[in-house]
Amino acid sequence: MENHIIDVRNLSKKYPSGFHALKQVNLQIKRGEIFALLGPNGAGKTTLISIICGLVNVDEGQVVVGGFDVVKQYRQARKQIGLVPQELAIDVFAFVWNTMVFSRGVFGKPRDDAYLEEILKALSLWDKRHAKIQFLSGGMKRRVLIAKALAHEPEVLFLDEPTAGVDVELRRDMWRLVEKLRQRGTTIILTTHYIEEAEEIADRIGIINHGEILLVENKQDLMKKLGRKQLILQLQHPITQLPDELNGFVLQLGENGKTLTYDYVDNQPTNHVTEVLAAIHRSGIELSDVQTKQSTLEQIFVSLVEDSK
Amino acid sequence: MNWYAIKAIYLSELHRSWRTPLQSIASPVLSTSLYFIVFGSAIGSAMTEIGGVSYGAFIIPGLIMLMILTESTSNASFGIYMPKWSGAIYEVLSAPVSAFEIVVGYVGAAATKSIILAMLILLTAKLFVDYSILHPLWMLLFLVLTCITFSMLGFILGVVADGFEKLQVIPLMVVTPLAFLGGTFYSISMLPEFWQKVTLFNPVVYLVSGFRWSFYGTADVSMTLSLVMISTFLIMFMVFIWWIFKTGYKVKV
């Protein structure tokens, strides 16, 4: 329990419009991990984050952050949270430095110029500290939002679609910063549409759809459990049909007759990879190359979300 | 109490005003000065004294009231409406601050600005009209209470409004007419008897009257009644704001 920095129990939310955004959600986030919350639009990701951060009222259930109830002990709970919202929601007429000072202060921390300088430098914003936010590019504005969320040294950082519409350079900077924060022990929860990012940086993955958590899994385990692999064999000479030796296996012959593809589940003792290769050897087919391909998290995600429909 | 948060909101709101000095400071001071020139020095010299006070001096408390009512309302409403409109309000709502601290920050800053403006106008008035303040501490009390009360009204409008136009409706269509008809430029005893009674339904009459009493010792209604009225408005708006945060009305879903 104490290892969980966030503990969501039986959380439900129904908006006045009647939309049931969350249905009995249970979710535990471990201290210091990078957790990616994936789900299609309207799945309930932002509602869940908004409730944890205090932006949306709880209908039913409980959320505890760092041992503090987000409703009854909101001060202690919120002090630990930094939020980077999805939209570029910022006072565009303010100056970068002033907005940073404001963010730190409003979260109840005494002014610390050295720390703010460090954050701005880490996000390549130091040169822009006297600039009016209005005149910054979209990517720069997003950097400011991240800097603001970090201004009070939060234990937990929520990144709600942080890389939507940002350039490659910012994405790289951001993930570098995320890695640095992880090393410091900051817990990071991100929602993203770029599933390859989750695949690259997350420790655990949660998939949400229609207000329900479909699964929460260690990334490696998820890939192992649900990931599929393909064995692709390049043939030296084209063939027109499969030889008899391969009849017992589900193999696909490529259109040019020069590739054979075999689908199997990773890490399963009964995946028959050895038998397939032995049968090919027996059939006298000569190979020029052998490849294996792992299915991506995106494919896993799509299949899970499709199944939940 | 999260003092750092109150300070952050308060200073950031004051900075917002200083970012636009022409609109925030110069414009209200200039427009009020024009009233002094036209009604105080030019037309005022041809008018008779009211209750032993020259017309130019008589309108000073009313003009200051007119200015602080509109400025407090519109400034506080913009202060909270802008972050609501841009979405930046998420930061304050997700911060470890209570509703009370949020209100102290926003309303405190709007009221401070109005008080500063009132002082600037008082100083400017000296250039055009000769006046004195009989009860300076009472004057200060009325000024502070009015600025806080109408900044609260502005805060409520900013929370409730769902468009820039609606923000302006109450200050322009309600507060300004009530201030004009609330004895800013005249004593209500100058009105026909029927209208004297009608005008007592105008809450601004009590504010102007009390404020004017603190300057010259003469008033349309008793000073105690003025004080009771301003305190009633203050409490009314406080209760309304408390209800807004209690229910999350137009703030949270």
From TrEMBL, chain A:
Highest taxon above the source species: Bacteria
GO molecular function, one term: ATP hydrolysis activity
InterPro entries recorded: AAA+_ATPase, ABC_transporter-like_ATP-bd, ABC_transporter-like_CS, ABC_transporter_ATP-binding, P-loop_NTPase
The ABC transporter domain, residue ranges: 6-235
Keywords, ordered alphabetically: ATP-binding, Nucleotide-binding, Transport
Annotated Pfam families: ABC_tran
Keyword Cell inner membrane found: no
SMART domains: AAA
PANTHER family reported in the protein's UniProt record: ABC TRANSPORTER ATP-BINDING PROTEIN
Protein name: Multidrug ABC transporter ATP-binding protein
From TrEMBL, chain B:
Domain ABC transmembrane type-2: 19-248
A Pfam entry, by short name: ABC2_membrane
Organism: Pseudidiomarina aestuarii
Domain of life where this protein originates: Bacteria
Transmembrane region(s): 25-46, 58-82, 102-125, 137-161, 167-188, 200-219, 225-245
Topology term for the membrane: Multi-pass membrane protein
Lineage, uppermost ranks: Bacteria, Pseudomonadati, Pseudomonadota, Gammaproteobacteria, Alteromonadales
The family this protein is said to belong to: Belongs to the ABC-2 integral membrane protein family.
InterPro entries linked to this entry: ABC-2_transport_permease, ABC2_TM, ABC2_TM_bact-type, ABC_2_transport
MF terms (GO), sorted A to Z: ABC-type transporter activity
Subcellular location: Cell inner membrane; Membrane
Key word Lyase present: no
Leader peptide range in chain numbering: none
Keyword presence, Endoplasmic reticulum: no
Name listed for the protein in its UniProt record: Transport permease protein
CC per GO annotation: ATP-binding cassette (ABC) transporter complex
UniProt keyword list: Cell membrane, Membrane, Transmembrane, Transmembrane helix, Transport
